Queue: 4 jobs
Job 1
Amino acid sequence: MENKGTKFLVIILIILILIAGGLMAYKIIKNKDKSETQEVSENENVENILTAEIEEKKINIFKGNDRPIAVMIDNHNLAWPQAGLNKAYMVYEIIVEGGETRLMALFKGQNVDKIGPVRSSRHYFIDYVMENDAIYAHYGWSPLAQSDISSYGINNINGISESTSVFWRVKDKSAPHNAVTSTEALLKSAKSKGYKTTSNKESILNYVTDEVKLEEGQSATTVTIPHSTLQKVRYEYDEENKVYKRYARNKSQNDWDTGYAVTTKNIIITFCDNYNLNDADNVGRQGLKNIGTFNGYYITNGKAIKIKCTKEARNLQTKYVDLDGNEIDVNDGNTWVNICPTNANVNFN
């Protein structure tokens, strides 16, 4: 009987040991699973944070594969105010006849209901159309611009030959300073002509997400650019919003519809000379000596540095480098490129 009792106790003890071991193993496995689940969860959280940081650091001003649209904008004082300039990622200002300047605004992936007033093309603007791989919208053209558009096979939309659904005239300005368009109308016209509306061409400018402060630059809270005796441009730095407000002929330039000031994050100045063309019309149209390497400035956040601007051919992208030959970093924001004569007395304050 004692042997049977002892055996029974031993069996019970073994069973209890097995149960205890099983419970312990279960807890270990459960804790391990919990730990692994927690680790996976933590890893996912880290990945989500990193992804969010990457998303946050993406360039906003130049993104996606929408093909840019370049629109010629009237800059005569009777055309002021203009519409759509604040939604352009890049605006070129270059002299035309009579000491006036004309603007070419580039839009990418933007829905802009009103752009204008739209004016006619000049042949040297085509160089900047090509280097941006843009669809070119204008209302009329000079003889040389017409010839070059044909020679270079530029995808263009000419308001003179378009319907009033693509370009239309408004009543609050007088002709020829009252033709306007929209990105939607231009894209619809481009598609009907069989133009490609996507592009993989990289940006001309090296945009960066970290703020460019130009620590070694000279002070540039006010920048004055005399394109001619008639057209003097001034940019005033708004320190609170970190943008420059634009003035022309001592008048603040504001948006036609919103009334907001026309502003820019970046300014590029390129010094290259214009000259009189001897064309059949003899109205003082201009040419531009823009092939080669030219002096210039890059201006942002209240500072300016000297740069070199090199364009090796009409259809090649302009390279903007510092005086050590390094491509300049440009703030993620819109840019005005002011192309002015080499003897222009540009002033910084």
Job 2
Amino acid sequence: MADSRAIGIFDSGLGGLTVTKEIIKRLPDENIVYFGDTGRVPYGTRSRETIQKYAAQDESFLLKKDVKLIIAACGTVSSVAADSSGNLPVPFFEMVTHAAAAAVAVTKNKKIGVIGTSATVASGSHKKEILRLMPDADVTAAACSLFVPLVEEGWYASDDIVVTQTVKRYLEPIVKAQCDTLILGCTHYPVLIKAISAVLGDKVSLINPGVAVAEAVAYYLGKYGMSNSGNAEPTHSFFVSDKPASFKNQASVLLGEEIDDSKVEQVDLSSL
């Protein structure tokens, strides 16, 4: 039985568009509602309680759009507040468990690296999940605070000396630990894949959580008969909590296509 309801995706800002990109690629027939909490970004420096509150409000907004499942396309929410989704009336997908499973599946030397925001790294959620799956794994985590500003400034080219030196500096612990697998624990980071790969080399597997969660969602929808029929042209709706200025530029980088600012709706979450 087909289910034409949309897939709901939220993030603290626009980084989750990289996850949306993978969902569209893997599930081209699905309708999508994306919400970016641009008025309160970033979540990565907030307290656990604040992150949980924001995540609950984001989820409430998506539920009002009658979505069939919700994806927390935010490394911070996935790491710090995923447990707050227990009362949701629809299936919930986060980044951590799927990324950890993908990393465990490909590592050869059992040395796995994780990079993310300070809140993501401090939570230790990736390490906990990796060790649950592979108790003898050696996990090295590093917070990369400047990666998001670099991407949002449009500085992500692998031949840009500023980008290269910044990536090299942050990844020193990963290189020193001889990790053969690295989880990109923030949704902005896949934009820097070429620069990261240039520093680490081709022998290090880079885990894009967006790809991992897209596969998980595809499997779930197929298993429970919730896929869209594909009879109508799918719709992709975008909402933000602040003025949608520059959404077009960000979307071209993170989503891989241009979305005119006029097609992005600003919403007020204060009542949720």
Job 3
Amino acid sequence: MMDAAPRRLLFVANAAWFFVSHRLPLARAAIEAGYDVHLACDFEELAEIGELKRSGVHFHRVRLVRGGLNPLSELRTYLELRDVIRVVSPAIVHNITAKPIIYGSAAARALGVPGVVNAVSGFGYAYSSPSASRRLMRRALASAYARAFSPPGVRIIVQNADDRAEVARLCPPATPRIVLVPGSGVDLKEFHRTPEPAGTPMVLLPARLLREKGVLEFTAAAGELRRAGAVARFVLAGRLDPANRGALSATQIQQLCASEGVEWIGDCKDMPRLLADSSIVCLPSYREGMPKVLLEACAAGRPIITSDTPGCRDVVPEGRNGLLVPPRDARRLASAMRQLLDDVRLRSTMGAESRRLAEARFGVEQVVQAHLGIYRDLSGRA
């Protein structure tokens, strides 16, 4: 067993851009609380590493193929991660998403790390389809998750009640150690509720361009409404993600947009401005943990249309701040869009409720304090 540094915290993630987008406020708060914070993951652009270093986070590269299943590549990832844990000697390893949970938990256990946090950001790709291949993947994941969740020094963070029930099913002894934290939070000072812009209303889907985000259904619904004479802009804002098994290519997106009258504006770096320019935010995703973009839409005071699926329905109580539709149902999605496009007063009422929910439940400070409480608990037990 290695000698762990008592205030050293190692995050393990799949990609630096995801950590910067979803966990950097937590890392900064941990540094302010006295932790020596490290991150092990892969990266796509050097700018990501620069952002981490400016925030005081020590970066360690671990090559990880998010959509890969090559045994040699997966073994390399595990060995590189184990080497990082041995060198950093953390008191707590905080694993985020599936592969980091599985490999990070195994390496931490082998090296005697006293505290482990496993953060489930939704059950993702393997749970988003009933196909035979996904069922096989779910069975393999179930066994791996059970091993990762079982040690008594492990805390499991989930983002919605459905995922809490799934973790308890996969590993019943872990049930008392599950903590529900509603997503990664949103900065209520960065996002403000503004009046809906005048002119043609914009229906916005801000997400990575994946099938599981409902991009195909969104474009189909937009095309149906445009052919029916609806006056609206339908906008896709998101990055390509070729490493993801559910990725759509640039060519596919361009063809969809051209055929259905949808605008694709690429990845947006200024979400407060983009949301302020929108009238309705739409995310017809198949399954989520708790999508950050919906928390941002709430903070920006926008009405939401999303799927009646885990994670999404936890942000949008039906009829209060938005509408829920069945996943994979472009016709019902179009009907919900039509309902909100035809009723500006309803959009205003639901937008106000979105902001109230953000202030009551989704502020980033609440999320940060919940995480720091878990770290304190693990440090005390160690």
Job 4
Amino acid sequence: MKITICAVGRMRAGPELELTQDYLTRFDRTGRARGLGPTRLLEVEDKKGGGMAAEATLLTRAVPDGALVCVLDERGQVEPSPAFAKRLGRWADQGRDLCFVIGGADGLDPALRERADHALSFGAMVWPHMLVRVMLAEQLYRAASILAGSPYHRT
């Protein structure tokens, strides 16, 4: 199952980019045996300032055809890491690719949220959209580690 992360905005060189790349590399390595990965990060920018609706159009175009869509949204489902790992395993078993969608500073357009197959939340707090990429990459690696039975995730 190929995984795409579609996100609004471009990450600049720095710790967030380094961490995201590191965790995605770890995920690709760990998940390969389970058919998870590779991952890629697609970044879109609304250079015309059209707001959430324009960002939603760009994000929708970036989603690979036929992929399951999981939006990252504060109103989404909060899951413990083992439950997320099980969900990721079930999605992989469906034989479809997966796309995570991360909005910009103002979040996601409601129409895009409604079209998603799943909405995931990292809690009731609002997180900077660049940091959400790091958190998602780490959770993907953690999920692959859980599915592989590695000791990275401790209960």
